[in-house]
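Hi support team,

I've been running sequence recovery on a batch of backbones for a student project. Most finish fine, but this one hangs at about 90% for roughly twenty minutes before it completes. I'm not sure whether the input is malformed or the queue is just slow. I've pasted the structure tokens below so you can try to reproduce it. Let me know if you need the job ID as well.

Thanks,
M.K.
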């Protein structure tokens, strides 16, 4: 949800009526899908028959993007979790930064040196102690 607006518009669960890999998707559609649709009124929930095809969960977003998650050999709870993942995501594609991020102001702490930790300072034994 971005600024209170749910990003997922439509959720479609595709399953095969007789395929073994669709067992969990069928159980989700027949037992839990109506409850899921009632709990998420802003999302249009549909199920499709895909005869001879593996099950999948497809989400269509406000931005026009579409995400498809494979539900092959998943249990009913795992299919519900896939639907929740689609509901909670923004629908935007992940961006990869091609160039390194360069700051106009260098760090006050200095340049980070990867690898070895900083040396540990040890006081000599003849150093005066703070007490008596």
């Amino acid at each position: 949800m971005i600024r209170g607006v749910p990003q997922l518009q439509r959720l479609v669960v595709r399953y095969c009526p007789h395929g073994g890999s669709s067992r969990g998707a069928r159980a989700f559609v027949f037992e839990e899908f109506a409850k899921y649709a009632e709990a998420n009124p802003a999302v249009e929930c549909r199920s499709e028959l895909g005869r001879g095809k593996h099950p999948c969960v497809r989400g269509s977003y406000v931005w026009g993007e579409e995400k498809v998650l494979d539900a092959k050999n998943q249990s009913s709870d795992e299919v519900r979790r896939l639907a929740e993942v689609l509901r909670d995501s923004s629908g935007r594609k992940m961006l990869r930064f091609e160039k390194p991020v360069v700051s106009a102001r260098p760090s006050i702490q200095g340049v980070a040196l990867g690898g070895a930790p900083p040396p540990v300072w040890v006081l000599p034994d003849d150093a005066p102690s703070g007490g008596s």
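--
Follow-up from support: It reproduced on our side and the slowdown came from queue contention, not your input. The CA atoms of residues 112 and 118 lie 11 Å apart. No action needed from you.
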